[in-house]
Amino acid sequence: MAGDERLGRQEGSTGSVSDRSWHGDEARSPLGRDPDPGLGRTRLELELESGYPADVVPELRSRLGPRPAAYSRPTAASRPQRPLAETAPVVRPAQLPAAVADFTGREHLVRELNERLAAPADRPAAIAIAGVGGIGKTALAVHLAHTARHRYPDGQLYIDLGGAGSSPADPETALGAFLRSLGTPDAAIPDGTEERAALYRASLEGRRVLVLLDNARDAAQVRPLLPGDGAPDCVALITSRAHMTGLDRTHPVDLDAMSPAEAFALFALIVGEERAAVERAEVMNVVASCSYLPLAIRIAACRLASRRTWTVSVLARKLADERRRLDELRAGDLAVKATFELGYGQLDPAQARAFRLLGLVGGPDISLPAAGAVLGLDVAETGRLLTSLVDISLLESAVPGRYRFHDLVRLYARACSERETRAPAEREEALSRLLDFYLATAARVYAMERPGDRMVDHLESTGHPGLLFETSKAALDWLFAEADCLLACVPRCTGECTRRRAGDLLLGALDLAESGARPRQYETVARAVGDAAHAAGDSRTEARARSALGHLYSFTGRYSHAERELRRALELDGEDPVVASRASNQLGIVTNGLGRYEDAERYLGQALEAFRADGNEAGEASALANLSRLHVSRGRTRTGVELAEQGLAIYRRLGAPLRLANGMYTLGIALTRAHRLEEASVHLAEALDLFHDARQPLWEGMAHFRLAEIQLMANRPDQAVAHAQQSLALGGLGGEWRRFSFLTVLAKALMAAGQRGQAEDCWRQARALRERLGSPEPEEVRQLLSASAPDLPAAQDPFPGHRDAYGVGPPVTESDPWI
């Protein structure tokens, strides 16, 4: 924790703790202003022996006495057979740092640890508190030691082992100081760590002593300082950035950041409750920028407290810039960055490289295979390196096989990367390898989900083979588990050498757009790629990014936006087989939904021709299905059924589960409009199961919606209500126009089931949606909401009041489509 106390408080705490300890070389140096070679003791030994700070020890020499000039330490052979502690005067050391008077937070943890210390049967030999620098390990340990000190009447020992610095304390020296503090005369203290450790353990027998080992480097440094099995009433509290694996009967505590409420309380304690309460929202922004790290919160609060003219919002704006955040978190000679430097300075070259490069990655965490791609190493070597970083708290692993940084540590890792000599080339190579990994694997998932779809043949080649999956489910599980990380990678790779692959990754991950799982994130990323490509004059990449964006907009009901992006994509690169086929296909869907049937037929004809020219059978089936929807919209139900059956036959031959579900869904709609309700119900029910297995909640909602229509037409209102409620629960991902459609069919089903009150509530919600979207209210809605409106006949045609296909009416305004 070196330096974390210089604000007058312990590391990450809220209490005042004087800096009694010396570190590294200081601990082994002579007293300085009044040396006494005859005394022959180090600062550390004198401080621990006396229980006073080293700067007052010279005044105490008279009580300590000098060593004899001819002094020599006894060997193990000449040491007394019984520990001298039995004949020496009883000494009760009280070396704990000052109590943390205003300790904040950690109440549940303190209570749990106190309960462990109070129960003899469950009491561990040691409690090892581990965590990143600045997390509050020392503050917690000191607070816990003071709350439990009444259980240890024979004394409390304390030492700062300096483990985070370059010169950690030597166990032999620490043992000598502890033995003197326990009353062992100098003449009885042997040379050698093992000899001193044996005498130390014997000295603790029959005593109840608490030992606080602060800032330990590793288990090897700590092990000789632990009470032995012969002292079951003694306990050690250990703080360290390293996890103390390999210590017997040790209870580990992996200390995490503060909760938002605890962070606010700490900040308010320093700047004043009234000042914090006035700008509570800005305070929460500040502590969030501090990533709830106690040391960072304390530094930020101290900066504000010393500047009475600043408002909290001024500080919040300064910390909002990630590139300057670590520089802003500095007060005097204390800085969050300096705390992290101590840990980074201990890394070997391979660990330091892994730390730097992993800091470049976006997303909440990273998988082991993805980390291997970043580092250019195999999984085994990557796992070894990442585990070593976890062991010293520079990396976290909350879930097996996945790793993450504390947010401020990530910023520091990036800063380390930027200051390296090879920084630009090293960063670009690492991100390029990660992009290759994601693109190759996403393309494999796409191919497994869409057999016969040749789009993957037109994607950029990669230097990574991608992961292999045994089943389609496993492939989809990977895609959705990696969604945040995959999408976060894309905007980091818009440079000259990676931009095309970044655009292609959007196409490979189209399932994320179709599922409606992350519409805002997908939109932001696609826009970033498109803008970068436009600035660079890269029409191919811009066209593909706009095509992906249009694909997303069409699935979320933003038809005018979708049409603009798709048409622009065709203008930019209509010769690209991917854009020529996919953009035309989506434009056919959009214009059909807008009721522009002639345009829809033209675009779908172009798409069918482009898919066939490319030998893309899956694409051909998709265009046929969309033509079926167009024919149904125009009242041509017979040809609509035929086209749907042709597309479904192709999907069956290709063996594509998700596409098969789309084909069944399309045929179900056509059969419904042809009043072949039982056949339609069978196809839609099967499609529903397939959509569920493929993790497509948007399409699940649509299938429930279509089944509700069928049940309503078949005069089965209770079943219609059940399906309509499911559609409403699942279909919010499809945008407000779909929600209006689902509310409409639910209201009709409720009315047919005799539940008029609930039906009217649904109609009111539908009316509010229409008003917000700026569309005129259908006459049907006005009639059904009027006081004199008759109950809706059970078998009334369900189609008035909501629209078909991929949308539910032409959008008039799209100010906030994600509501």
UniProtKB/TrEMBL annotation:
Question: Keywords in UniProt for this one?
Answer: TPR repeat
Biased composition annotated in UniProt, kind: Low complexity? 788-798
Molecular function terms in GO for this entry? ADP binding
Basic and acidic residues bias located where?
Answer: 20-46
Residues forming the NB-ARC domain are 107-275
Instruction: Specify whether Cell division is a keyword of the entry.
Output: no
State the name under which the record lists this protein.
Tetratricopeptide repeat protein
**Source species taxonomy:** Bacteria, Bacillati, Actinomycetota, Actinomycetes, Kitasatosporales
